[in-house]
Amino acid sequence: MKRHITLGEFIIENQKDFPYAKGELSALLSSIRLAGKMVNQEINKAGLANIIGAVGLENVQGEDQQKLDVLANDMFISTLKNRGEICGIASEEMEDFISFNESIHSDAKYVVLIDPLDGSSNIDVNVSVGTIFSIYRRVSPIGTPATLEDFLQPGNKQVAAGYLIYGTSTMLVFSTGNGVNGFTFDPGIGSFFLSHPHMRVKEGGKIYSINEGNYVHMPEGVKRYLKWCQELDPATNRPLTSRYIGSLVADFHRNLLKGGIYIYPQGTTAPKGKLRLLYECNPMALLIEQAGGKASDGKNRILDIDPSELHERVPFFCGSTEMVEMAEDFIAKFG
Q1: How does strand 207-209 pair with strand 260-264?
Q2: 3-state SS of the chain: helix, strand, coil percent to 5?
Q3: Which end of the chain is more exposed for a tag (fewer CB within 10 A), N or C?
């Protein structure tokens, strides 16, 4: 029988591929694994515990906070803080970043940006949700408090990124810049096992994922691209298939496995797009590029964008390379 490799074993065996401080980055990924297991446990009993629904407050994005948003945010912050590998953390759920100044963080070389529970509004209807994370090496001097500049780095400076998806099975998918690997959680044993090695997005994907309910608010180039996707043309395998869950992690994960494009453009209701550059677009862009795909804002490579604020929003086109480039062509031609 083939021996299944655990996440811990994989990290140890592949430390040579990790940039910078190998032991610290390994420990940081282990911390994310631990927090993910804790969040997964809470999600799995959400229907039985009093942790579904909104808390009656809005986050910094102006979105209704769900109870599990707050719970997941607290779990990841406390777990990452207790390990000492990072000097600060920024979360989609918080207006400002947190700097860790305790003695165990004095030599910390990394910062983490996190969307603790992406798609949380779907919890009440039992739809897959996830956690998205991004890891950077700090630019401020070691031994000093974390600064805003540590977090406002372009995506091409990420040393690792990934997501956890809490669905029919729980998976951790991540990259340290040497390909993408996926690990599935075995709840009976309590470990993640390598289940999807060397993940590659399919070329010639047939799925497009977009909230077509916002069609009237979209730029003309995006409208033309959607009509092109829907046209009957056997020579180009059209029409394509529309699939949209409304949970970025779930939509991205499906398209990564099956081939496709995810689109959230700017529009009259979202002039700069809806997705956050630092918490959602950069980590997903790193993953899709490492899997052989492409991510852009419709014109420019996502990973080359210099962020100007923690909660900056950008349009997002991500998936199979030729599909993203086709969408870019329509935008270049029609705006």
Answers
A1: parallel
A2: 40, 25, 35
A3: N
In 3D space, the residue among 92, 62, 76 whose CA is nearest the CA of residue 309 turns out to be: 92
Pair of tokens at residue 160: 């690792």
Q: What is the Cα–Cα distance from 34 to 19, expressed in whole angstroms? A: 22
pLDDT in tens, 141-199: 999 999 999 999 999 999 999 999 998 899 999 999 999 999 999 999 999 999 999 99
Q: How far is CA 329 from CA 9, 63, 154, 224, in A?
A: 44, 33, 24, 10
| Token pair 């689109």: residue | 263
Q: What is the pTM of this model?
A: 0.93
Residue 312 backbone dihedrals phi, psi, to 5 degrees? -65, 140
Could you please report the per-residue DSSP string of 170-182?
Answer: EEEEEESSS--EE
Q: Which of 6, 32, 286 is nearest to 164 (CA)?
A: 32
User: DSSP label at 301?
Assistant: B
| Last residue within a domain, chosen from 196, 227, 243 | 196
CB-based contact 305:155 (threshold 8 Å)? yes
Give the per-residue pLDDT at 181: 97
Q: How many helices (H) and strands (E) does the chain have?
A: 8, 15
Instruction: State whether residue 127 is helix, strand or coil.
Output: coil
* Residue from 13, 6, 18, 9 nearest 179 by CA: 18
The enclosing H or E element of 26 equals helix 22-44
265 domain residue, yes or no: yes
Classify residue 201: in a domain, yes or no: no
Paired strand residues for 111: 88, 136
Domain boundary among 196, 217, 246: 196
In single-letter form, the type of residue at position 216 comes to V
